[in-house]
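Async update (no meeting this week)

Hi team, since we skipped the sync, here's where things stand on the single-chain job. The sequence we agreed to prioritize is pasted below, unchanged from the tracker. I ran it this morning and attached the output directly underneath so nobody has to dig for it. Comments welcome in thread, and please keep replies under the output.
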Amino acid sequence: MRSAITGLLIFTAVFCGLSAQDSSVASVVARIAAVERQLPWLWSPAAEGLSDIPYTYEVRMARRLRTRSGKEIPPVPGADALSSWRALHLERIPLDFGAHFRCLSQDGASPCSSEWVQEFQRQAKSRDALTPEDRARIERTRQERRLRRRDFWDRFPAAFRFESVGVNQLRFSPLPGYKAPPGSTGIQAAIAGRLSFDPSTYEITRLEYDLLRDADEPFLRLPKGAHFKVALSRSTDQHYLPLSIFVRRERGKARDIEERTDEFSNFRRFESESKLQFADPPAYSQLR
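Output:
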């Protein structure tokens, strides 16, 4: 009898401890999701939210291609510079409808090739030629992007099983039986990974995940086995900005491996009065 009572007490203590831990983890996840919901990134490898911030910054892009056996795939001599590049250093300047990119170096050489210069000139001419209808369409796309971002974080706490794996670190995997609602990208049911967060702000400082199955993103198709990782650092605004983004994925019928790393630096205000928005503009608050 005493043994049975002792066993019951141990079971009760362990159960209560697990319940308390689960409650604590759930509270942390809810706070992280509420904070990230207001930020202009983070879950998409396309880093589409970077186009919403009024900051000039530099990005160094490195690209590596290899076969499935690990053999490096060199650039094809004489190939189009827009597709054969291995390293780019760009400066991004924000505009009302898009951005202006200046090519600082390509594959270690400066100035960049005429192909890249002409491409950015083409983009500038396209922006100058935007009609009122074009601008309205772009604005609708921005609204859809913000809604999609908020939807991801709204569903984040309920879509995954979470586990504390270290100080301010969580591991997550799809909750069995979770089904993405119609109209969503469904990426929540396709990824598993881990994140680190700042306990003072609950902003994510590092996020990485693997694709458990194919998933379609608005600007990118991610095949099963792809790996995504983003690291952030605190800016002068006391918020976290992307420091680097890494994506590894298969591509093409040959299923070659592409690894791409984008490193961001030198964030600075484009105008003396501009301010980085870490919440949606008032015009979008009614869409919640």
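Quick observations from my side:
The chain is about 30% helix and 35% strand.
Residues 149 and 227 are 20 Å apart (CA to CA).
Reply here if anything looks off.
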